[in-house]
Design goal:
Elements lengths: L1 E4 L6 H12 L8 H10 L5 E5 L8 H11 L4 E4 L23 H13 L10 H10 L4 H9 L6 H7 L14
Parallel strand pairs: 1-2, 2-3
Length: 174
């Protein structure tokens, strides 16, 4: 299994660089799409996870299609908020997370990634549950909210979520 983080990729070169890092294959002078088609095929039966593909979706057919044709034993899992529209694509939509289970668990894990001492306690458990419910159990919204744990307590976050998604907007309005 090879995990390719495409969060920094913006073009074909970024995709290739992420795949190169994951497969631990140096970039050569030849066409990188062809080179990595062979590199993936050389791994035989494997799983290639391409995470955060939505910002490079325009390059999906130019990268994935040749790789899928060359590496017939490989399985590709692509995470994206948009449909790729490539041959052989199977879409698996993710349902909202339960506010009283996986949603709270995701919030805690992501909050701890930003603030090591964050803990789910008897006093904040109900508030975190309310936050997850207010965000409709949407994983991305939960992750964005949990990232605010470094500067806001769950109580403060809940108060600011009255304007549901405004607080989740990044500094550049993204």
């Amino acid at each position: 299994m090879f995990f390719c983080d495409l969060s920094e990729a913006r073009n074909t070169g970024g995709i290739v660089s992420a795949v190169a890092a994951a497969l631990d294959v140096p970039l050569g002078k030849d066409d990188p799409i062809v080179q990595f088609g062979y590199a993936i095929a050389g791994r035989g039966k494997c799983l290639i996870i391409l995470d955060n593909f939505e910002q490079v979706i325009a390059h999906g057919a130019g990268t994935l299609c040749p790789w899928m044709e060359r590496a017939v034993e490989a399985t590709f899992v692509v995470t994206s908020r948009e449909i790729l529209g490539v041959p052989g694509e199977h879409i698996l939509p993710l349902e909202p997370l339960a506010a009283d289970g996986a949603g709270v668990e995701l919030f805690v894990v992501r909050a701890q990634a930003r603030k090591v001492d964050f803990a789910l306690t008897a006093s904040n458990k109900k508030i975190v549950h309310e936050i997850v419910a207010l965000l409709d159990g949407l994983p991305l919204a939960i992750e964005l909210a949990a990232a605010r744990a470094v500067v806001l307590s769950p109580e403060q976050l809940l108060a600011r979520l009255k304007d549901r998604f405004q607080i989740l907007v990044g500094a550049r309005g993204v």
